[in-house]
Each structure stands twice: as C-alpha cells, then as structure tokens.
Amino acid sequence: MPPIEIRPGVHWIGVNDRTTDLFEGLWPITQEGVSYNAYLINDEKKAIVDLSKSLKTDDFLDQIHQIVDLSELNYVIVNHMEPDHSGVLRTLRRVVPGVTIVGTQKTKEMLEGFYGITDHIQVVEDGDTLALGDRTVRFFSTPFVHWPETMMTYLEGEGILFSCDAFGGYGALRGGIFDDQCTDFGFYEKEALRYYVNIVAVFSRPVLKAIDKLKDLPVSIIAPSHGLVWRENPGRIVELYQEWAGYAGGPGEIGVTLLYGTMYGNTEEMMNAVAQGVSDEGVPLDIFDARHTHVSYILPSLWTRRGVIVGAPTYEGALFPPVAQVLSMAGTKRIRNRIATHFGSYGWSGGAQREFESFVDELKWEMTEPFEFRGGPTDDDLRRGEAFGAAFARRIREAV
Ligand code: FEO
What domains can be seen in the chain, in order of their start residue? Predict the structure, then answer.
C-alpha cells in the first residue's frame, strides 16, 4: 500500500501482512491477516513512529522514500520492541547509520539484546517531549502494554496518539485505513477481541492503568500499530479495550462456552443434548470442537462468558487431550472467575473428571455437579444431559 496522509505532514507508512500464517508463531492469521502500522512525521526533523516486521523491508523503505529521502531521517521512535514493530530496524540502521533511536531505558537494553545496537540511542522518560520543528511529540510510559519497555507517543496540537499494541487488532486493512472508511466493523471488532485475548489480556491491569493515565489527554486520532486508525470515533476502541480488560477481574457476561472433544461420537451425542438444554433456557451459547478449532478462536469466548461446559471423554485415565490443551492455555491466559462443569463418556474406570477438577482448581473456577456416563448414552442419559445443560444455564443466568 502507498503512504497515506492522516493529517498534514503525518503519514501512515504501514505494511499489510497477508503472508504470515501464525502471529507470534502461535496465533492463526492465515485468513485474517494483520497490519503493522508505522507513521512518519515530516517536519524540520523527520521522525518515524514504530516500524514493521522485517517481512517487506523493501516496501517499507520505499514508502518512506516516497515522502522523504531516507538519509534525511532524524529519529526512529520505538514505542515497543517486539519484532513485529522493530524487525526493520537492523536494516534501517544500516541504511541510515546516523538515525537516532528514541525509546525508554528498557528499550535501550532490548536494542542491544535483539539487534546488537548500542549507539545513537536517546532514552526518554514519562512526560518527556521531543521538538521536531513546528510539531512536538510527548512520550507516555505505559509499561506492560504489552512488554515492560512499552510507551506511547502523542503528537501535540494534532492530538494523535500513537498507541502501538494498545487499541490494535488482527485483520489486514481492507483498502481504507480509517474507521470512517470501514464497512465491516463486525470483522474488525471480532478480530480486535481475538487479538486482545491472545496477546494483551494477561496485561489487562496495565491496560486499564494506561487508559486511566491518558483519560484527560485530548485525543482526536488513535493511531495503533495494528488495524484501523480511529479518527471519527477514537472513543469506540478505547471503550472496547476497557470493557475487555474489565473481564480480567469480573464474572463475565451471561453466556456459556461449550468446549468439547469426542473420540467415537458418544460425548458429541451428549453434547447436542446438553446444548439443547442450555438453548432451552435462552442463554447464549458458543460451541467449539477442540479437535478442529485453534485455541486462538476459543479464548475470546472463554474470556468474555461466565459459564464453561467441558465435554470430554476419558482418554488413558485422563481428560481427552485436545480439550485439556485448551484448558491449559486458559490457565496461561489467566482466565479467572468462571463457573464450570464437565460431562463425558468413559469406558471403564474414568479419570477425565479427576483431571478436570485439577484444572478447575488451578484456574480457581467454581465447579458445579458433573455428569459422566458409561460408553454410549442411553435415551435416559440424553434426557438427563438436557436437564444438566438447562440447570447449568439457569445457574449462569442467576450468578451475580
Ligand atoms: Fe504488536 Fe507486542 O507487538
């Protein structure tokens, strides 16, 4: 994509990535893509705010070159060191050896660790400013949104907040880069939530702290380093982030995540009966087959919904592994305050329930009565399964 002027003298110079399959080597984006947004402030001094993954370095440098000669660059402001934003740095530094890298003290340490860069670094602290000519930028320390070195850069006068990971989302840009050009908010909001839960959720407390810290700042544009640039309604993405961060300490919304796996269809048959029971109570329900669904797509439901029903048979005296792996990731992402139950088929001695209980213990979830059955479910088992689902749904609806 060519550079796009977002305000006079301020350009988006991002890279739209439709090539990478796994973000962070872990989270699928084959279908959705992602953008690495960077920005160029073209004043007396020329400054780039954030960079890109080293995926299309030629394109990235060419975008800069369309606005200024690379040799004219004075500053590279590094809000965040993760290589999806700093990957171009090594090459850029070779091409423009005199460019000054601006970041926090921790950024300075990471520059050496990641790229062996130790010179031409300007360390800034919370509230420091940097004059570029007619324009001045101010830096705000926002540690752990997403890494400890993270900061945000604010262009005074214009009110542009370059927020890096904060307020970003998966999803390559589809033509327009601005929220007012977006015709598919459903896609972006869904992908922003998936990104939030996959990448940022563990740091929800620092997110809320950063939002609170910047609440009185006059912001006309939120320019994150992934996803849409918010110029018509910047408050919208802030409110969404605030809501999602709030799930870290809260009980979640009324709704059920039904996570299941099945070996020969017995637990799946019961899953349909349990789902019927939940639906009969009018409680919203997401169903995920853990065998076929990457955990990236399951986490948003677990993060936002109050109830978790796990359908899993016993496998070698333990919980069916694809389901266990999802619960393990729920632990990694520190999903708390959930009400959970388990159902599933067993052949002889069982064991799934025992492992489920140890997960629930570790996750500090509240557990309700489980429901296991031997082999294939009988008609009576299925009736009991439907009642089990309905009773759980009522429990979720009534939980405060
Ligand atoms: Fe988009 Fe934490 O990097």
Answer: 4-246 (3.60.15.10), 254-398 (3.40.50.360)
Pocket of ligand 1 contains residue 53 by CB under 6 Å: no
How far apart (Å, rounded) are the C-alpha atoms in residues 66 and 3? 8
Ligand 1 centroid to Cα of residue 230, in Å, is 18
Q: Is the CB of 17 under 6 A from ligand 1?
A: no
* Ligand 1 lined by 179 (C-beta under 6 Å): no
Q: How far is the CA of 165 from the centre of ligand 1 (A)?
A: 5
Cut 0.85: pTM above it: yes
Q: How far apart are CA 337 and CA 40, in angstroms?
A: 43
Query: From the CA of 8, how far away is ligand 1's center (Å)?
Result: 27
| Ligand 1 closest atom vs CA 226 | 1
Cα 153 to ligand 1 centre (Å): 15
Q: Give the nearest ligand 1 atom to 150 CA.
A: 2
Q: How far apart are CA 210 and CA 233, in angstroms?
A: 19
Q: What is the pLDDT along the chain (400 residues), one digit of tens a residue?
A: 899 999 999 999 999 999 999 999 999 999 999 999 999 999 999 999 999 999 989 999 999 999 999 999 999 999 999 999 999 999 999 999 999 999 999 999 999 999 999 999 999 999 999 999 999 999 999 999 999 999 999 999 999 999 999 999 999 999 899 999 999 999 999 999 999 999 999 999 999 999 999 999 999 999 999 999 999 999 999 999 999 999 998 899 999 999 999 999 999 999 999 999 999 999 999 999 999 999 999 999 999 999 999 999 999 999 999 999 999 999 999 999 999 999 999 999 999 999 999 999 999 999 999 999 999 999 999 999 999 999 999 999 998 6
HSE value, Cβ hemisphere, 13 Å, CA-based, for 301:
21
Separation CA 356–CA 141 (nearest Å): 41
CA distance 367 to 379: 26
Side-chain-side CA neighbours of 236 within 13 Å: the count stands at 14
